Amino acid sequence: MATAWTSALLILLASQAVSWVTSFEEEEVPEEWILLHVVQGHIGAGNYSYLRLNHEGKIVLKMQSLKGDADLYVSASTLHPSFDDYELQSVTCGQDIVFIPAHFQRPVGIGVYGHPSHHESEFEMKVYYDTTVEQYPFGVAAYSDGTETSHKHAYAPEDASQEDESVLWTILISILKLVLEILF
Q: Rounded to an integer, what distance in angstroms lies between the CA atom of residue 138 and that of residue 128?
């Protein structure tokens, strides 16, 4: 019975590794995104590395943890965002994506946090300029209360599915770590 579970677990891990490598090699981004910059770095456990974004417009930050677990915090109000003080965040175990709206005050502070579960984290962040035009079926005035912050908490259905998928992957990885810890 234990050998059947072990072989099933190994097959699952192998398939996840193959899909991870394939998705990492075949990084697909919409053609409307223009690559502006690539940042690579290392961050110690419990530490922050800060970056400043001056580029105007809609920006997409796409960060991959190459080793360990690096998390992303973004703020228009401080150049040193943290897990206590941020406006946007992505804290997944793997790829983190943050969409910075055009109305955010520049410069935007970006904080990369090395999760304490790993001694050191290595990351690669790609910065894209999003050239897509937002379509408002009833005009911009229908979505605005006269201030620019009205778009701050906009909800997109695809964000919910990505968040659900991220939570499921986090739970799955935690269960696999627990099973491996018990077996070995």
A: 28
Rg (CA), the chain: 19
Please, which residues have CB within 8 angstroms of residue 110's CB and are 6 or more apart in sequence?
A: 50, 51, 52, 53, 61, 72, 73, 74, 81
The two tokens of residue 8 are 């099933």
45 burial class (0-12, 13-18, 19+ CB within 10 angstroms)?
middle
Q: Token match 């968040």: residue?
A: 163
Q: At what angle do helices 2-25 and 157-183 cross, to 10 degrees?
A: 140
- Contact criterion met (CB below 8 Å) for 143 and 136: yes
Helices (H), 101-156: none
pLDDT in tens, 83-124: 999 999 999 888 999 999 999 999 999 999 999 999 999 999
Q: Which two tokens stand for residue 100?
A: 């910075």
